[in-house]
């Protein structure tokens, strides 16, 4: 069982829990496994440089050569690794508050490393006490140590600051520049002071959009807004889109792997709608194809696939699982309901810049406002609920719920948590991988059905906790 890593890497309070010592030892353990040319990059957090230099030290000490890509989006590092390097380490806490930072490790394809590799790293990182428990206290009980190479085996650090430019160029060549230029779209971009400051405004300007920016100076204090691009945090963007009469508002999270849209009327567009929109036109343009998503994604994805010659495959929740499935099955496109879209022939991970370019391309080619394009998608209603649950009870509660769900006679999917298909729609009950909570998510054609099912699902969890 993994102790150190969450669903994608490590995310902790910087310099309290995520210290340079931790980062360096972790990087040395990873370097021992990869033994090659490793790229490192990160987001503009105040602690990124500190952690990055510790990671570089760890990688060097295990005999790797290091390529420092500077401050850039997570997908730009994944793009670089896939094209040039044997592995990569990304210093980012994505959308978490400014006091957090994190470490994401990717393999030679730029996909988050699998659980099996994380476990090997943990074996070298963790230490075992006399009772046989793995504890995080580097003393005399090391199970295994990272390899530390001698002075004459030491690698080099090379700076490569060309990746951002190459990444931008690559995004631009993947869309219909002529159509976008002719559409003269007015776009308001809110990068939330994150890594997208170096990419999205430039991509859109070179494509011929009229671009206005807000929060587009990189700043680890995130002075303009919280880096999580949810409706609550994007109120200023919503107001500004209407005020300047923009055709589109674009917002990203801290490490620029997610894109959220505001339509020309100032409506917040949920991530599953953007996913469905891009899916539709990807399938039309390519004459069908394989779509990969998670079990928690809208039925709209299936409806669109059916109408446009697509096939849908689902994985457990986690963007690296979607990315890996896309690679293994040579899929066309994938995504998650949170606005993370994956274009597997470009980057094996969520990519915000190409998502943005693709959305303006669709608007330009269809010559329709975003609100209209969204209206044309299959409409479903959803409802989300959550309840606190101690981590050590999660498994037991989940097992009981699975039994109850199967006894209802409805179709049940246990890929990740328990998903129950009812006549009115579906409901999924999952234990969070990162927090001591259970989440329940329901979707139906009628709003009251979605609410009712979410209520039913969360009550099921509460009853188990009380018994
Ligand atoms: Mg992110």
Attribute tags:
22 strands, 5-stranded mixed β-sheet, 467 residues, Alpha-D-Glucose-1,6-Bisphosphate, Chain A, domain 3, 15 helices, TATA-Binding Protein, alpha/beta, binds magnesium ion, 6-stranded mixed β-sheet
Describe the model.
There is one protein chain. With 467 residues, the chain is of the alpha/beta class. A hairpin with an 8-residue loop joins β4 and β5 (100-106). 37% of the residues lie in helices and 22% in strands. It is built from 15 helices and 22 strands. The chain has a six-stranded mixed beta sheet, sandwiched between helices. It has a five-stranded mixed beta sheet with strand order 10-9-11-12-13, sandwiched between helices. A five-stranded antiparallel beta sheet has the order 18-22-21-20-19, covered by helices on one side. The model has no long low-confidence stretch (mean pLDDT 93). α9 (271-286) packs across α12 (352-366). It is globular. The protein has helices at residues 20-34, 48-61, 74-84, 115-125, 163-173, 177-183, 200-206, 235-244, 271-286, 300-307, 319-328, 352-366, 370-375, 394-407, 447-466; strands at 10-13, 37-42, 65-71, 87-91, 100-106, 127-128, 134-135, 157-159, 186-190, 210-214, 248-252, 259-262, 268-269, 289-294, 310-315, 333-335, 341-342, 381-388, 411-413, 418-421, 425-431, 437-444. The protein has three domains: 10-161, 3-Layer(aba) Sandwich (Alpha-D-Glucose-1,6-Bisphosphate, Chain A, domain 3); 166-375, Alpha-D-Glucose-1,6-Bisphosphate, subunit A, domain 3 (Alpha-D-Glucose-1,6-Bisphosphate, Chain A, domain 3, 3-Layer(aba) Sandwich), CATH 3.40.120.10; 381-466, Alpha-D-phosphohexomutase, C-terminal domain (TATA-Binding Protein).
């Amino acid at each position: 069982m993994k102790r150190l890593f969450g669903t994608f890497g490590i995310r902790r309070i910087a310099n309290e829990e995520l210290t340079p010592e931790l980062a360096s030892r972790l990087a040395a353990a990873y370097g021992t496994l990869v033994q090659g040319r490793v790229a490192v990059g990160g987001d503009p957090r105040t602690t990124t440089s500190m952690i990055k230099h510790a990671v570089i030290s760890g990688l060097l000490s295990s005999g790797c050569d290091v390529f420092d890509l500077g401050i850039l989006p997570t997908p730009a590092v994944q793009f670089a690794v896939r094209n040039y390097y044997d592995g990569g380490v990304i210093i980012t806490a994505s959308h978490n508050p400014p006091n957090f930072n994190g470490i994401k490790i990717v393999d030679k394809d730029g996909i988050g490393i699998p659980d099996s590799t994380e476990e090997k790293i943990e074996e070298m990182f963790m230490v075992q006490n006399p009772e046989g428990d793995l504890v995080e206290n580097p003393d005399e009980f090391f199970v295994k140590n990272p390899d530390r190479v001698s002075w004459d085996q030491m690698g080099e650090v090379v700076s490569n600051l060309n990746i951002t430019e190459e990444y931008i160029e690559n995004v631009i060549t993947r869309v219909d520049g002529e159509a976008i230029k002719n559409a003269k779209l007015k776009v308001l971009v809110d990068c939330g002071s994150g890594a997208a400051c170096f990419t999205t405004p430039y991509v859109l300007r070179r494509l011929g959009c009229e671009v206005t920016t807000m929060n587009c100076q990189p700043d680890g204090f995130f002075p303009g807004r919280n880096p999580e691009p949810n409706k609550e945090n994007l109120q200023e963007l919503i107001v500004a889109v209407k005020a300047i009469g923009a055709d589109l508002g674009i917002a990203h999270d801290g490490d620029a792997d997610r894109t959220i849209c505001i339509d020309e009327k100032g409506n917040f567009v949920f991530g599953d709608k953007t996913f469905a929109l891009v899916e539709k036109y990807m399938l039309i343009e390519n004459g069908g194809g394989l779509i990969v998503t998670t079990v928690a994604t809208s039925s709209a994805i299936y409806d669109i696939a059916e109408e446009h010659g697509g096939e849908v495959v689902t994985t457990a929740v986690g963007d690296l699982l979607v990315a890996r499935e896309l690679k293994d099955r040579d899929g066309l496109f994938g995504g998650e309901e949170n606005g993370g879209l994956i274009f597997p022939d470009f980057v094996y991970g969520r990519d915000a810049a190409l998502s943005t370019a693709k959305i303006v391309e669709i608007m330009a080619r269809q010559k329709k406002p975003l609100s209209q394009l969204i209206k044309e998608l299959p409409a479903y209603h959803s409802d989300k609920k959550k309840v606190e649950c101690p981590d050590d009870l999660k498994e037991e509660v989940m097992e009981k719920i699975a039994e109850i769900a199967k006894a209802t006679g409805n179709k049940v999917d246990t890929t990740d948590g328990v998903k129950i298909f009812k006549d009115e729609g579906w409901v999924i009950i999952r234990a969070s991988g990162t927090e001591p909570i259970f989440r329940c998510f329901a979707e139906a054609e009628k709003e009251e059905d979605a609410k009712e099912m979410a209520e039913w699902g969360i009550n099921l969890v509460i009853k188990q906790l009380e018994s």
